[in-house]
Specification:
Cobalt-precorrin-4 Transmethylase, domain 1; RsmI_HTH; 4pyrrol_Mease; 41% helix; S-adenosyl-L-methionine
Length: 290
């Protein structure tokens, strides 16, 4: 077991990796602790250094010649060893994502994992989060929720992704790009049920913040021709578990097989009903023969 050096850096910040949450829109949503860390850490790391520099300028935090290291998906091989070198030397490293809480759909995960694996201190300074902000304003149940990130881009992968979410008795939270939102809503209406309630949360905490609520079918119609801009968070109500007899299962399989393979249709119906995927696959095969 490795032990990190004790003490504080030049700015009074203890050694280790400090994961700093930053605003998702409104610059004043930053915390006092985040400002202390950005002002006092020996080294700064950021998913987008330009965004962090701008945020620091807004709040009057000077870089003062300290290293500012870009760390993102495209330069991890070069940046990770450099940042780990600072941490092993007992430096305090403050990492900030482009927006929101670090490690939530954010490349900082690799850095935090590497530091934790070596027993180096990893500390979080909590703050703004698009996930929790969207959940709060959606008007949907918040006692149990699942953040599922970005849906896959491939049609088949996305169908399976939605089928896996269908039986979950939790409010679902997804990220999606504006240009794919309309298509996703159509697929969610088909996979989760058209009457399932949801909220499209756009540009949270920013000037043009907007929350549009309705059923998945209503939202799919709204955004079929719309061209939304900005960051999108989609919140979807939990569904009611389907109690299906054999005739209902056969009807669901027939409907699913109009657009899906036998295997994928069985997986989708199994996800919606909790029935055995193997028995549904056999039932689907029998239906194709008959």
């Amino acid at each position: 077991m490795s032990r990190a050096p004790m003490g504080g850096g030049a700015g009074g910040i203890p050694p280790g990796l400090h994961l700093v949450a930053v605003p998702i829109g409104a610059a004043r949503d930053i915390t006092l602790r985040a400002l202390d860390l950005l002002a006092g850490a020996d080294v700064l790391a950021a998913e987008d250094t330009r965004t962090l520099r701008h945020l620091m300028e807004i709040h009057g935090v000077a870089l003062n010649g300290r290293p500012l290291v870009a760390y993102h998906d495209h330069n991890e091989a070069e940046a990770l060893p450099r940042l780990m070198g600072f941490l092993r030397a007992g430096k305090s490293v403050a990492y900030a994502p482009e927006a929101g809480t670090p490690l939530v759909s954010d490349p900082g995960y690799g850095l935090a994992r590497a530091a934790a694996a070596e027993g180096l201190p990893v500390v979080a300074a909590p703050g703004a989060s698009a996930v929790l902000t969207a959940l709060a304003v959606s008007g949907l149940p918040s006692d149990r929720f699942l953040f599922a990130g970005f849906p896959p881009s491939g049609a088949g992968d996305r169908t399976r992704f939605i089928a896996e979410l269908a039986p979950l008795r939790a409010t679902l939270i997804l990220y999606e790009s504006p240009r794919r939102l309309g298509r996703l809503l159509v697929e969610l209406a088909a996979g989760l049920g058209p009457e399932r309630q949801a909220a499209v949360c756009r540009e949270l905490t920013k000037r043009f913040e907007e929350v549009t609520r309705g059923s998945l079918s209503e939202l799919a119609e709204i955004y079929a021709a719309a061209d939304p801009k900005g960051e999108i968070v989609l919140v979807i109500d939990r569904g009611a578990e389907i109690q299906a007899d054999e005739a209902t299962l056969e009807d669901m399989l027939r409907a699913a097989m109009t657009t899906l393979s036998v295997k994928d249709a069985a997986a989708e119906v199994a996800a919606k009903t909790g029935s055995s995927k193997r028995s549904l696959y056999q039932m689907a095969l029998n239906l194709t023969k008959s």
